[in-house]
Amino acid sequence: MADTGGQQLFDLWKKQVEDGTQQWLKMMGTPQAQTLDPQAFWRPFMDHCMAGWAKVMTQGTASPDLMGQWKQFLDQWIAAWSKVLEQAMGTEAFAKVIGTQLEGFLNAASPAKKAAEQHIEATLGGLGIPSRSQVTGIARQIVQLEEKLEGVEDRLEAVLKRLNDLAAALRQEPR
User: Fold this and answer.
1) Is residue 118 domain-shared with residue 170, that is, in the same domain?
2) What is the pTM of this model?
3) Total structural domains in the chain?
4) Backbone angles phi, psi at 173, to 5 degrees
5) Tens of pLDDT along 67-111?
6) What range defines the domain where residue 23 resides?
7) Angle CA(114)–CA(120)–CA(123) in degrees, nearest 5?
8) How many CA within 13 A on the CB side of residue 170?
9) Residue 52: which residues within 8 A CB-CB, separation 6 or more?
10) Is there a single domain that holds both residue 84 and residue 148?
11) Lower Cβ count inside 10 Å, N or C end of the chain?
């Protein structure tokens, strides 16, 4: 009975890997004629793993040796998938797929964001609380006002300097 439970778990995992691989191939735009066999990719790793599973199912307990083999399997599996994904992600087709997905996400999110912002504006207005756009508008006006005051101060300093220079020149002139 333990054997069938392990086999069912393995079959479920195998189906998930196959389905996931097929989805990746569809996203990558791989034609059906060039479709890769997902089993060929991971079979060497799984054969090693299944030997360990069979050993566990017959013994009933996991040995440290099996855990070491399982870790080794996982390390090899992760390394293999990393290599495959690195190659796939470096292609123009992958960039197009990701770009299309991002564009679709932004297109879908933009109206929702705009509606949420309008709802927040209306709620804050109803509560008599300034919205973010109103606060940033006031801040922008304050910054512009400060810049104008600095300009006026600079001109006043220039006028005062000229007046002081004229007064000094008049004092030095012989009469």
Assistant:
1) no
2) 0.34
3) 3
4) -70, 135
5) 777 777 778 778 877 887 787 778 888 788 888 888 888 888 888
6) 2-90
7) 140
8) 6
9) 66, 69, 70, 73
10) no
11) C
